[in-house]
Amino acid sequence: MNQLDQLAALLRFPSISAQAEHAADVSECADWLVDKLSGMGLDVNVKKYSTPKHPIVVAKSEKIEGKPTVLIYGHYDVQPVDPIELWTSAPFEPEIRDGKIFARGATDNKGQFFAHILGVEALLKENAGQLPVNVIFLLEGEEEIGSGSLYGFMKEHKEELACDVILVSDTGMAGMDAPTFSYGLRGMACAEIFVKGPSADLHSGSFGGAVKNPITALCELVNSFHDEHGKVAVAGFYDDVAPIAAWEKSMWSTVPGMSAKDLEELTGAKEVVTEDGFTAAECIYARPTLEINGMGGGYQGEGSKTIIPSNAFAKISCRLVPNQNPDVIMGLLKAHVEKHAPKGVEVKFVPGHTGDAYACDPHSEYGQAAQQALEAVFGNKPVLIREGGSIPIIAEMKKVLGADAMMLGMGLPDARIHSPNENFSVELFLKGIELSQSLLRRLGQ
Ligand code: BES
Ligand code: ZN
């Protein structure tokens, strides 16, 4: 099978980690990877470990003394597909159109880590089974649901996973001609808020005016989260935020695709609105946020229904930046919600999952090798950014394995990750295979 057909085969598994009915698909996807890694001509130790949820796949090359060990991390689980009706082709029947392969997981993250697998395979073929460095593949099936099993697994398998540096392609790329090195990730803190009003929906004529409406109460609460300057109004929220260095501000001012106009075109938003005093790039790469991800309650059906609903809820998440502690932030959120809970309703704050932000020095020896490889393959100097998205396990890897990450993302702005019509550029996939070889060769010198 050619490389693209192999990618298509990997994309056919509906390995949706969040949905229990897909657990067998996730596991079969792991089996497929085990087969691929075992059959690669690599003298490897390939293992599929079961966990309380989804399997973890580890493959190691035969250890060569005196060579650095590179741990290549990726995740083979994918996000749910809904709203399904907005897909042009079925999410698990990969289709190539306009030079892109469309499927759920094409960019996030199957296409990106599979490029590294094929890069290693090519290196093995080229040099009679010898790699320029030691390689460990670590592929998990729970990234999209918070990497629950991998935290414990890494601690238990610390020796097996010992490495000098981590290679990850699961972040964004500024543009096809703008190879991107990310030296940071935002962290996160997620929570839910439940507002309880009357014990059942009430007639709004019989009781309206006397009984507090829980949706109104929730809106008041949600409104208290931000001030008129676009700042999060939770007391203490910015206390530990690491400032943005002058060299970062100047570097980010020229990242392609990050002007207000570019972002308006890309997203369809009427106007880009940022926190006062910061550009859009600064806000996305290095400022914390509080977002409302969903709200519900009351009547959602056709026509009108004159009620005071009995309850309402909101899902919120904060993106965090270096030095902010997610547990401290969770405490601040809870205190804020308790303090601003409107009269007449019961408000419950339920903490969800958290993850630390991450940042490393882009000018380290490994950082420089990665940037050289990017330039060699793409022909342009890479842009250096901090990713606005999160891969919380990367900060944990730094803590447990002591290694920093080279994040060479290939997620283009229009790759539609987590969204209908997710896609991965075929050209980028092939360049990714080259990039992997170029970087591993460099690291072996
Ligand atoms: N690949 C993404 C991280 C990412 C997000 C890269 C945006 C580039 C742009 C990763 O799979 C992801 O979606 N992470 C989640 C966090 C997770 C704990 C649910 C995220 O950022 O929301
Ligand atoms: Zn994702």
What does this structure look like?
- The protein has 445 residues and is an alpha+beta fold.
- It folds into two domains: 3-185 and 357-444, Zn peptidases (Aminopeptidase); 187-241 and 288-355, Alpha-Beta Plaits (2-Layer Sandwich), CATH 3.30.70.
- Helix 1 runs antiparallel to helix 3 and helix 4 (148-156) packs parallel to helix 12 (393-401).
- The mean pLDDT is 97.
- It has 13 helices and 18 strands.
- It is globular and about 80 Å long.
- A six-stranded mixed beta sheet has the order 1-2-6-3-7-17, sandwiched between helices. A four-stranded antiparallel beta sheet has the order 11-13-9-14, covered by helices on one side. Strands 4-5-18 form a three-stranded antiparallel beta sheet.
- Helices cover 33% and strands 22% of the residues.
- The longest helix is centred in the first third of the chain and has 21 residues, at 106-126.
- The two termini are 32 Å apart.
- It binds ligand BES and zinc ion.
- The site of zinc ion (ZN) has 5 residues, from loops.
Strand order of the largest sheet: 1-2-6-3-7-17
How many domains make up the 3D coordinates? 2
Apparent shape? globular
Strand content: 15-25%
Number of helices: 13
Ends distance: 32 Å
Q: Could you state the CATH homologous superfamily of the largest domain? A: Zn peptidases
- What is the percent of helical residues? 25-40%
Write down the overall mean pLDDT.
97
Coarse structural class? alpha+beta
CATH topology group of the largest domain: Aminopeptidase
The CATH class label of the largest domain is Alpha Beta
CATH architecture of the largest domain: 3-Layer(aba) Sandwich
Q: What characterizes the major β-sheet?
A: 6 strands, mixed
As a whole number of angstroms, the C-alpha radius of gyration is 23 Å
Q: What is bound: which ligands?
A: ligand BES, zinc ion
Number of strands: 18
Oligomer: single chain
